[in-house]
## 1
Amino acid sequence: MTGKIIPDIVVSRLPVYLQTLQRFAKEGETTTSSKELGERSCITAAQVRKDLSFFGEFGKQGSGYNIVFLSDQIRSILKINRGWDVALVGVGDLGHAIARYPGFAERGFRIVFVFDNDPTKIGTKIGKHTILPTEIMVETIKNAGITVALITVPSRAAQAVADQLVQAGIKAILNYAQASLNVPDHIRVETVSPILQLQHMMYYL
Amino acid sequence: MTGKIIPDIVVSRLPVYLQTLQRFAKEGETTTSSKELGERSCITAAQVRKDLSFFGEFGKQGSGYNIVFLSDQIRSILKINRGWDVALVGVGDLGHAIARYPGFAERGFRIVFVFDNDPTKIGTKIGKHTILPTEIMVETIKNAGITVALITVPSRAAQAVADQLVQAGIKAILNYAQASLNVPDHIRVETVSPILQLQHMMYYL
């Protein structure tokens, strides 16, 4: 890892490679090639090699990539070789489903606080979490040093929540609301947009 | 719309432009420019112009794009100027949330059938839907001529469900399961991958 700037599109493909590598490992494979890794990731072999070369030399000429080693390297590059504590804001149907979904914790994203502003929900339990009032959100997140948050509030409330999260020291937001968020440049936002994905596919029908 | 092949990456940006145009319309705007449209969509003005030029001449030199007109054109290109009936498979926490979420219907994706294989769920109501047994899924979808489906079953069940959906005549699948689906080439699959989005952001923390 030198100081050079890596294009974001390259970084965005690393989780895809990692997912494919994990599948190969599950299938009992121990080594792979850029061809194989590319095919299963729907990316060309040349692109795989180019992407990985930004970060170092991970394969051996002729023998390909060791799956465990390359997975570890990608986890380390993405800083997901450690766990991340996450705050969830908004316990509607979707927030409820996410708070109970084990998949995030299994990949190292541990939901540690769940917030809502509905007095009938505050204090109730969702899985092992007690729903906390948004009034104490900024303070609670700040004190715990949490930097990752999921927004699952209605669209109209999303910007106000994002503003509070930024104030609380959050650096990365996964936004499930159908709203674009204005945040300072140093804050990362990714939006989950299933409707845009559906619209994209309709072109081909 | 001529017979030329449009790169998929271009098609994938159309829903993003449409979303931005809808925001401008909501804000009371009637015209926009490639610069403005690009800025709010996080895409360069040159790219906006190039993307739209694949489909025709939508703007006037000097006066920009009419927002209503361009929105209509994009909807027509994406074939979302009509409604689409959708089948939902899997009524766990997430499927439950989606079945009750009005956002899909508001964008023209009307969930008309909800399936599950759990005998304790079959026959019960979720919103206005009665949960149907997966045994009658292929037949029901085929008879109704539905071509779009959402998969919200656990990962281990996703491939078997996808196989059945293909058999039923489904052409586009929005896959919420953390599993890659093997489907024939003429079937479109988009995967909702919030965990990959989180992993991507961690690089920057």
Note: The beta strands of chain A are 31-32, 59-60, 64-66, 84-89, 109-116, 125-126, 129-133, 148-151, 172-175, 188-191.
## 2
Amino acid sequence: MPSPLAELLRDLDLPASGAAMHAFAAELQPLPRSLTGDGVRATLARIGERLPLQVHEVPSGTPVLDWTIPREWNLRTAWIKGPDGALVVDAARSLLHVVGYSVPVRQRLPLAELQAHLHSLPEHPDWVPYRTSYWRESWGFCLAHRDRQRLAAGEYEVSVDATLEPGALTYGECFLPGEGEAEVLLSCHVCHPALANDNLSGIALATFLGERLAAAPRRLGVRLLFVPGTIGAIAWLARNEERLGRIAHGLVIANVGDPGGFHYKRSRRGDAIIDRAVPRALADLGEPLAVEPFVPFGYDERQYCSPGFDLPVGSLTRTPWGRYPQYHTSADDLTLVRPEALAGSLRAYLAVLALLEGNRRYRNLAPKGEPQLGRRGLYGSLGGATAGRERELALLWVLNQSDGDHDLLAIAERAGMPFAAIAEVAEALVGAGLLAAVD
Amino acid sequence: MPSPLAELLRDLDLPASGAAMHAFAAELQPLPRSLTGDGVRATLARIGERLPLQVHEVPSGTPVLDWTIPREWNLRTAWIKGPDGALVVDAARSLLHVVGYSVPVRQRLPLAELQAHLHSLPEHPDWVPYRTSYWRESWGFCLAHRDRQRLAAGEYEVSVDATLEPGALTYGECFLPGEGEAEVLLSCHVCHPALANDNLSGIALATFLGERLAAAPRRLGVRLLFVPGTIGAIAWLARNEERLGRIAHGLVIANVGDPGGFHYKRSRRGDAIIDRAVPRALADLGEPLAVEPFVPFGYDERQYCSPGFDLPVGSLTRTPWGRYPQYHTSADDLTLVRPEALAGSLRAYLAVLALLEGNRRYRNLAPKGEPQLGRRGLYGSLGGATAGRERELALLWVLNQSDGDHDLLAIAERAGMPFAAIAEVAEALVGAGLLAAVD
Amino acid sequence: MPSPLAELLRDLDLPASGAAMHAFAAELQPLPRSLTGDGVRATLARIGERLPLQVHEVPSGTPVLDWTIPREWNLRTAWIKGPDGALVVDAARSLLHVVGYSVPVRQRLPLAELQAHLHSLPEHPDWVPYRTSYWRESWGFCLAHRDRQRLAAGEYEVSVDATLEPGALTYGECFLPGEGEAEVLLSCHVCHPALANDNLSGIALATFLGERLAAAPRRLGVRLLFVPGTIGAIAWLARNEERLGRIAHGLVIANVGDPGGFHYKRSRRGDAIIDRAVPRALADLGEPLAVEPFVPFGYDERQYCSPGFDLPVGSLTRTPWGRYPQYHTSADDLTLVRPEALAGSLRAYLAVLALLEGNRRYRNLAPKGEPQLGRRGLYGSLGGATAGRERELALLWVLNQSDGDHDLLAIAERAGMPFAAIAEVAEALVGAGLLAAVD
């Protein structure tokens, strides 16, 4: 009998899921997300329509680990007018045009002085870069290099009409309890305006994954975090420090919508169960996977895997951050993110969760010699033939390796068999009274 | 001074041994072996003419681990007569024609019904398959597919005249004591009728190996088991459970007569001394060897390596079970088994045993700096030259690595030198008072 | 702020150092070195002009570990005169012509008898081999094979005018104290007459290295040994047994002047810090390096790595002993040794020492989440861009891995960054109060 998660995986409607996630990403795309502010709140509100989401507000000035919650930033308008008074840059067209957390400004200045506040990409002259200045008071604008080169000499007027005032950092948390205390942490970031693969793809996947999981009884709890990058994860860690022991496995979700192949970045530990589960689950799906060692930069695995926490959290992405040309530019848009890629990623995450859910350690209750499987109806009765006995081999593998040390994942790896095949016979052996779970 | 086992190896007459083992296999070939019964007894009687063999009878119904000793099966005749009354299948021609443990039957039935009781190999139409039904009451016949296709429609008469009654399981055991308590377990199966490579080759090798070892004083005891597969090993394990701690090393002997290259299947532990000894011994002989990981199927290593026992038992074969086309068919006959292959296998087993016998751990008694070998006559007196000093290098390796942890096998592996060369200088160093055995 | 050793490395004048070391080797070349005697004393006297060298005299007959200090040998003259009275071999031309430790002899003998006392190299007919007979009383001469073949039949006169009498074994030791107790042992041999790469190159490098280190404050002490091979190292070990615990790292210096690439032979332990430090230091210099496992023959690492001591001592050479054709012949002369090779070797040794000096383990004092580097001026303030951030990655690596277990060397290896880059940011983090050394 497959587990509810294995059933979810089996029954997944890939085209419909992909289309729905893409549509949800499109719905969130225009919301003015930043590290803090109403854009994050609006995003969480849409997620909350689909999930039992708890929204947390952490007041500005609150100390969290080594950091302090910053002031809240909300932008009304931001623009540059040329010498002729025409708008040359306008954040109303795309929030990427203003450097995130720009302080309010209204002034006239010559082009030469303005240049120090402009950001563009000579190597991609049509794309607008994404830049922020969260931790140093500053203002700036981002624009296509081709547009920047067209700026005529003369005096420009710039305006950033924003508030940067005491408020709160906002993040969302959805906890789907399991039978036991152990949890899987799934974390995505919600702080990038406009960017589709880098932020919206992960939000959409986490939301739809949570929607499906909410209905399925599970042994493992699932905790979905929708947090602004870095400070959001740090705030959550600071507020949940005494409960971190429950995190048995974790994944940071990002860049799951581009058409690239899967990449798994190991946890800092490198040999956590999640580090073995992802490769096995994807191999069982027939999905190619590049496995990479932990490095202390990237997304919020940086925080979860800091040495004082060292949680078993990896990251499963398609093309990793910084390795696709559109990364952190206006070209990371909804055409880069494909419904079928989102659907395949959802399937991969579900497969990993189904594997974790089914992975246990057992003890063979008749460990001396092989138990007589035939009299229990678990073994073919005709001796001598060798064909068609895959299931019998799986039974023998589980019996031989179930000494209380090897989990089913380890047995599947050693036997070179799909995890589901191993889990299925383990259940049969439990039913026959030959196996007992040890954890 | 080489050990008695090294001398046996050196003095082995390969052509004579090969011819004698092949002749012995031929002598045993017609005996009606099965899981139980008089064919096994007759086989053990012939072995007992050559070895001090203890024959054990375990009564039907005796519980052994998770199993129960089955009833004893003895076949008188088994045949099928065609619609014209002529014999179309007759176990008198080959015991393979009757499914092992067929229950008595005498009936007439149309060809269509008979087909459900017939076994043949479409892919090898001239060969008779080998099939058994030990654990489910049933009857059946095996025949060449070409003959099966010639069967005309009509009514057939079948007869299995056999007894399946309370009796005993019979196995043989030959223990050749050593100086100490530690033993080498060598196990082969004696339950297959007719099959030559798969059963007779192992029986012949074990018998001749035991004959030679009986005369040679040894540090290690040698225990040879001649057991019906699975239930025989299980019965032996059940009856010797409290003595299993003495098994320091073990090998399951099978398929040692075909012309294929050697294969070694590791013990479940994977890093037992036997797992290192076999590759080294065969490398020192110049014999190519394929080393394979443990899998929980094959011969009786399945039982010895079950998790409740986990004995250091591997299996050294030529072509492994199931990988030669004649496996479990009438084509596994005395033409597949070659005298020179049997002789080479005997030599390989002797080499492994000689290595195990000579393998010890030592402690360097002058471990600080190198001892002065020159004044003990162990080192050339002329400094500066570099040629012709293999033996001196062996001396330095043994001295450097003999810290009580590394055995001679590990030193030979690290030095990349033959085990015999390392063992020889260790003995010289013991003689010079520079080395003492620690076990 | 780089360490004084890193400054030495940075400021090293390669051409001047190479020329000076080569000149020093040339100055030492004619001195009549042997296992004992005035040639060793004269060599140490020249070294002592450059270093604070302590010269030890260990009397003949002193027991040292398993050995006894031999008698002292001093040669006055050694020659062979031909049937016509002309000198055919004369040690005045090269000390290689007489077998080291030849006992005094003066006799006439026919060529046929003389041959048993002659050594030459048919495969290199113009080179004179180097031979010794330290531990068996004997005499002999070495000559070019071409000259040997020209010897006419007839009676020859041989003379070895030497003393072999109670005296002493002489060795030199230079200790440059560090802040703590831990020491680096650097050992070279001073017993070969004439040979340039095999003995003079190591002496010159050790002397110049010591000269430079003497002026630089260090955490680690440096102990330079100038010892006759084997018995010298054994004598030093015997006399310093209770202080060996201070040897934290060590290298045997030899063959550092030929034009070959670097070879590192690991310590017996194989995973000592020195075994990781040498490959990293040479990689950081861009120097190709062949790393080889420990073998219990070679130079005095044989003694330092004997199982009773097992010191963390490897050996960094250019072409290893025995692998260049000129090895132990008159062709190992000052043309084989090149100033630029000596300079490159000095640089390599300095780089290893600088790495060892800077290698420490730290503890991240803000290990929960990443500390906020930006407010400490350690991190760029503009978010979103990815280029030019090598130093920030180094900071994150050190913070992430500094759990008190990983040393900076391990972090550099894992990050794939130069050790100096890692050490530099560690110092910055200590300055920022984020890191504390644990040893």
Note: Residues 401 and 411 of chain A are 7 Å apart (CA to CA).
